[in-house]
Amino acid sequence: MRWLPIDRTDALGELTLRARDSLPGRSALRFVAMRGIDRCIVLSAQAFTALIPLFIVVASAAPAGQENAVSRAIIKRFALSGESADAVEQLFVTPPGASSGVTVFSALLLLYSGVSFTRRLQRMYRAAWQQEKVAVRSTVFATLGLVALVVGIVATWGIRAAFSRLPLDWLWTLPVAVATGLVLWTSIPYLLLDRRVHWRRLLVSGGVSALAMTGFGIATPIYMPPLMTRYTNDFGLFGITITLIGWLLSASFLLVAAATIGAEVDASDSRWLVLLKDRFGLLDPTLERPVPVNRGLTRRDLEALVQVLTNWLILAGAVWVATWLVPGIDVRGGLPTYLVVSLLFGLVNAVLGPLTHWIVGFHSWLRVGGSALLVNGLLLATTAGLSGRLGVAGFGSAVLGAAAISLVSTLLELVVRPVLPGPHHQTDVAGRPR
Question: How far apart are the C-alpha atoms of 149 and 121, rounded to whole Å?
């Protein structure tokens, strides 16, 4: 039997439809439909607004000699030192002899700001799960959500502090943080959604939120000190505010994205997700089990995606080897820079490569011995011109670097490149023929 030629336009269109109908695609569409970026900005702004009265209350209620508790907590949380730590202390310093008479007003302002924050959080969860507002009842549950948030944060801090005193505390910290985060970020949306969504359906959102926030907490002391130092040097005390807002915006994005993914997993009737939810008890026992259907990416699509990612990593590794072997080739930065440079090099090859080879093909003197090396060297030099992170000393270094990249890529592909099935092996994500 002979295979008929494949219409690439139709194949691409079908792939686009399958990608849009997959879990990532539908999650992205849900994120856009609920105006996720706007909600991230609103959440981070409201959280920053709530922090101001919190800082005032803490400074006013602190005993004598402990007025700098806020600045010390920020310095410790973000692992600051030097000028950035001095700037934080200067920003949150309490003037000598300051009155504590504003404590009651500040406490009321803090309560109002906290409830306003949980109401924004409530609106985000309602948009993700497509729930309607229930008048006064929503305000009551927003207040309960604030109480649960405060109690959960205090309890989480106490549990982590207790486990930190155990031997090998680093071994216990991560699972404890994820477990406490799962309880916290499952119970809060359960309350904010007026308990109209069964808690089992919220476990995925809670788990994704817990993992995301735990990873965010681990990364914070790593990337915040240099970031805050740079913004402090550029903008002075205002740089501290910019950094805090950026930090809150990143945390808000993680929460919104986790809610979006959790809501889409809950609503999806894809066969593999229905089986997964049924297997781990993530379905509402009072509702009928959804009828599973085949939708989304096929196994062949996933294997093709793995191949693309593998080739990208191979090219990044080949670029790294080229910088090590060839004098005059330099990449300034770590792994993310190598990934960006290799991606740019691949795009330049895809766009300019065919045209350059076609032009070279008209010159017979270029065909003799190494036209491919000359073309690849030209493409590498073009990539260096487009990227400030890639340095090429001259065209000779570009040709040698291109040769090294081609050789190393070929060797690595022979070792790690996955072999995809033919067109007659098309299956869905569960492994069944389609």
Answer: 11
State the burial class of residue 125 (Cβ atoms within 10 Å of its Cβ: 0-12, 13-18, 19+): buried
CB–CB of 323/330 below 8 Å? yes
d(CA 173, CA 169): 6
**Phi/psi of residue 4, nearest 5 degrees:** -75, 150
Residue 420: pLDDT above 50? Answer: no
Inter-axis angle of helices 169-192 and 237-267, to 10 degrees?
Answer: 70
| 259 and 320 inside one domain | no
315 and 244 housed in the same domain:
no
Task: Look up residue 185 and give its two tokens.
Answer: 């970020």
The sign of the torsion formed by the CA atoms of 187, 189, 190, 191 equals positive
When computed from its CA atoms, the radius of gyration of the chain, rounded to whole angstroms, is: 28
**Whether residue 238 is found in the same domain as residue 354:** no
Instruction: Name the residue with higher pLDDT: 158 or 46.
Output: 46
Of 197, 182, 67, 71, the residue nearest 132 (C-alpha):
197
DSSP summary character for residue 193: T
199-235 tens-digit pLDDT: 999 999 999 999 999 899 888 888 888 888 888 888 8
Are the beta carbons of 138 and 122 closer than 8 angstroms? yes
Q: What is the 3-state secondary structure (H, E, C) of 215-239?
A: HHHHHHHHHHHHHHHHHHHHHCHHH
Q: Return the closest-CA partner of residue 121 out of 170, 179, 188, 73.
A: 188
- DSSP code of 327? T
Arithmetic mean of pLDDT, 129-152: 82
pLDDT in tens, 312-330: 888 888 889 888 888 888 8
CA atoms of 126 and 149, how far apart (whole Å): 17
Q: Is 288 domain-assigned? A: no
pLDDT of residue 255: 95
> Chain-wide mean pLDDT for the chain?
79
- DSSP codes, 411-434: HHHHHHPPPPP-GGG-BBTTS-B-
For 319, phi then psi, to 5°, come to: -65, -40
Q: Write out pLDDT tens, residues 253-270.
A: 999 999 999 999 998 888
In a domain? residue 98: yes
pLDDT in tens, 318-369: 889 888 888 888 888 788 888 888 888 888 887 776 666 566 554 444 444 4
**Total structural domains in the chain?**
2
271 and 370 share one domain:
no
Containing domain of residue 43, as a range? Answer: 23-279
134 and 46 in a common domain = yes
Count of residues for the chain?
434
